[in-house]
């Protein structure tokens, strides 16, 4: 408890600051330099918004961990939980949508459903659907979040009715929607994308393959421990490993894997944007405009700002992204 009171607020604060700066930079670049948004740009914009929602909950959780009791009232318990869950599911669903969009553009280049003339309308429809899906997946946890007066003080946690299957359903929902579905989609899509890119004689194909592997690997590394512990707690509900020691170990493990998973929202801007040369140049351009004394000596390639997009299959994954 004493270690958590120092470690968790410190880590949450670092994640909040780094993630807020990175995602804010993504939003600034998308809003300022992309006048004609396509599906990938809209997905990246909403992915950054999802991470912002998730990040907004971290200061409250940091304060909760520091003082070991909830001091913000019942309404804020529901509101902060809603921010947390919407950001959690929103970032995952928009990541899935980006993966499917890349797969469709590269594998089915000439028959991609979202053509140039329908990209805006399709993007809006998909964005609304993803947010509705995120809200639906978040509702059970938000509804059952309650503030209770325990012996150690006020707590904000998910309180499920006794004798019901809600806890098991929520655990299954997190495992299926939080890991199994996105990981399956990513592995399927990227195993089809990578051979196509490798068969194309392009200087950028190795960067593309590297990006694909980073996307899958980072997502798997950061979210798998969390989902494993969730699955163990799911088994714990059915009487497996039903000892006090296992209960204590699972609660302790949940703190660690949860903090590891939290760090993923900091990496999304790096994975999806910062690896692109065009984004780095745009980011430097904004920083030079805002902070000329600090970033005035950095050089950028002006040709990156021409805004022209190529339709060649070998470079579509880069030219249609930031």
Automatic annotation (TrEMBL):
Key words, A-Z: Cell membrane, G-protein coupled receptor, Membrane, Receptor, Transducer, Transmembrane, Transmembrane helix
Compartments it resides in: Cell membrane
Major localization listed first in the record, in broad terms: membrane
PROSITE patterns referenced in this protein's UniProt entry, alphabetically: G_PROTEIN_RECEP_F1_1, G_PROTEIN_RECEP_F1_2
Biological processes annotated in GO: calcium-mediated signaling; cell chemotaxis; immune response; positive regulation of cytosolic calcium ion concentration
Origin: domain of life: Eukaryota
Pfam families, alphabetized: 7tm_1
Membrane-topology descriptor: Multi-pass membrane protein
G-protein coupled receptors family 1 profile domain boundaries: 22-272
UniProt-recorded Gene Ontology molecular function terms: C-C chemokine binding; C-C chemokine receptor activity
Family named by the database record: Belongs to the G-protein coupled receptor 1 family.
PANTHER family per UniProt: C-C CHEMOKINE RECEPTOR TYPE 5, CELL ADHESION MOLECULE
Record-given protein name: G-protein coupled receptors family 1 profile domain-containing protein
Organism name: Hemibagrus wyckioides
């Amino acid at each position: 408890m004493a270690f958590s009171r120092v470690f968790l607020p410190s880590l949450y604060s670092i994640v909040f600051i780094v993630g807020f700066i990175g995602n804010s930079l993504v939003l600034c670049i998308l809003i300022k330099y992309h006048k004609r948004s396509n599906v990938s740009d809209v997905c990246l914009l909403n992915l950054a918004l999802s991470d912002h929602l998730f990040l907004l909950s971290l200061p409250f959780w940091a304060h909760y961990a520091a003082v070991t009791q909830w001091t913000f009232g019942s309404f804020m318990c529901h509101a902060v939980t809603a921010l947390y869950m919407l950001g959690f599911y929103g970032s995952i669903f928009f990541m899935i949508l980006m993966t499917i969009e890349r797969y469709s553009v590269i594998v089915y280049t000439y028959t991609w459903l979202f053509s140039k003339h329908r990209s805006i309308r399709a993007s809006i429809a998909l964005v609304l659907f993803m947010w509705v899906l995120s809200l639906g997946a978040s509702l059970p946890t938000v509804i059952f979040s309650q503030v209770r007066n325990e012996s150690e003080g006020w707590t904000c946690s998910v309180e499920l009715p006794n004798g019901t299957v809600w806890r098991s359903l929520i655990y299954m929902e997190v495992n299926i929607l939080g890991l199994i579905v996105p990981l399956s989609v990513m592995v399927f899509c990227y195993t089809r994308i990578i051979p196509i890119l490798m068969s194309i004689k392009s200087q950028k194909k190795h960067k593309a393959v590297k990006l694909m592997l980073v996307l899958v690997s980072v997502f798997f590394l950061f979210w798998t421990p969390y989902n494993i512990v969730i699955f163990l707690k799911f088994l714990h509900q059915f009487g497996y490993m039903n000892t006090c020691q296992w209960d204590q170990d699972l609660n302790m493990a949940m703190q660690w894997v949860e903090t590891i998973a939290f760090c993923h929202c900091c990496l999304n801007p790096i994975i999806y944007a910062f690896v692109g040369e065009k984004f780095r140049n745009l980011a430097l351009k904004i920083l030079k405009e805002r902070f000329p004394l600090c970033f005035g000596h950095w050089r950028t390639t002006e040709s990156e700002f021409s805004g022209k997009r190529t339709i060649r299959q070998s470079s579509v994954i880069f030219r249609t992204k930031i």
